[in-house]
Design a protein that fits this description.
Layout lengths: L23 E2 L3 E2 L1 H17 L12 E8 L3 E2 L3 H11 L4 E4 L6 E2 L4 E8 H31 L4 E3 L7 H9 L13 E3 L1 H5 L8 H11 L9 E5 L2 H18 L4 E6 L3 H14 L5 E6 L7 H5 L5 E4 L11 E5 L3
Parallel strand pairs: 8-13, 9-10, 10-11, 11-12, 12-13
Antiparallel strand pairs: 1-2, 3-7, 3-14, 4-6, 5-7
Helix pairs in contact: 1-2, 2-3, 3-4, 6-7, 7-8
Length: 322
């Protein structure tokens, strides 16, 4: 059987999961939203490292070089810049490989200059940030190389929006930036809605027929557990789109196999409703099987594997002269 490529309409709009531009652009760098996240996480990181006020000392000046000890993508420079600006204003950094740049083992990433005590005090915080976020970007790039413009992170994060930013820099989709950023209706949500209706499928139908699209945020997504629920949701939404001109509905196929996802997509094609939905799969997706997921007719493959439990990029700092 011929493998089916992901569904793409002519002049297809940006996928609603593609929200990275709200965090970062190459032209303007970090947005206010990302800067606010940096402030929260940097405060926690330095606080846990015993730093409770801006650093300063009269110790001798030193220069140090940050090196890559792995191949990968560098991400986190903007966070380190923010850390130094607030917590170690006497320390300066010159980036030789900025955010989004690829490095190989042995490459110089940055030169750090300042008084010895301050440089050594912030060393671990800087390297933790660079290692963690670069590791996420590097892993995302590995997944995106097989399934370009399909890989999305979930809200299972370590450092919230910083994880999302690193995924974006690695070529992935950010999905929701926060819970209220878009509306996702999951099994627990439906269980507490339309309690007068007995079956899950009936509650899903009632919700889709009455939801106010002016209140859902960036996009609306519903989780389904069976092929029948997916087809019912797509059929109902095609009717709403034709009547009201609403945006496409995201249907998340929860814990479906790649074969089941392929079947759902093909049945929607046959019924003429595929163009009205964005098909997303989540749950049980592993890198070794990614090619099968890429070819089964999905728009989005969401996973926490690109950002949670990822090996940090190995980065070190050496004081010059050692």
């Amino acid at each position: 059987m011929v493998a089916r490529a992901p569904f793409i309409m002519a002049d297809a709009p940006r996928l609603p999961h593609d929200r990275g531009h709200e965090l970062w652009t190459m032209e303007d760098g970090p947005s206010r939203k990302l800067l606010a996240s940096m402030d929260r996480w940097v405060g926690a990181i330095v606080g846990d490292d015993g730093i409770d006020m801006p650093l300063s000392s009269n110790s001798e000046a030193v220069d140090a070089t940050i090196f890559a000890r792995d191949d990968g993508l560098v991400v986190g420079c903007a966070v380190v810049d923010y850390l130094l600006q607030i917590w170690a204003p006497s320390v300066r950094v010159t980036w030789l490989a900025g955010d989004g740049k690829r490095v190989t083992s042995g490459d110089e990433i940055a030169v750090v200059s300042g008084d010895r005590e301050s440089v050594l005090t912030v060393e671990r915080s800087m390297l933790n940030i660079l290692g963690q976020l670069s590791g996420i970007a590097t892993e995302t790039k590995r997944w995106s190389a097989i399934a370009p413009k399909q890989i999305a992170s979930t809200r299972k994060t370590v450092w919230g929006m910083l994880d999302k930013w690193a995924v974006h820099m690695g070529g992935g989709l950010t999905h929701r930036l926060a819970k209220d950023d878009a509306t996702m209706i999951k099994e627990n949500d439906l269980a507490s809605m339309h309690v007068d209706l007995e079956h899950h499928e009936q509650r899903l139908a009632a919700f889709l027929q009455t939801v106010d699209m002016d209140e859902v945020g960036a996009f609306l997504e519903v989780e389904v557990r069976t092929e029948k629920e997916a087809l019912v949701a797509a059929m109902l939404w095609s009717q709403r789109r034709q009547a009201d001109g609403v945006d496409r509905l995201v249907i998340m196929l929860d814990n479906f196999s790649a074969e089941q996802c392929k079947s759902v997509s093909e049945q929607m094609d046959e019924q003429g409703v595929r163009e009205h939905v964005v098909l997303e799969a989540s749950g049980g997706i592993v890198f070794d099987d990614l090619k099968s997921w890429h070819e089964c007719g999905l728009d989005v493959i969401s996973t926490s594997a690109v950002n949670r439990g990822v090996k940090p990029l190995d980065i070190t700092m050496l004081v010059n002269g050692l």
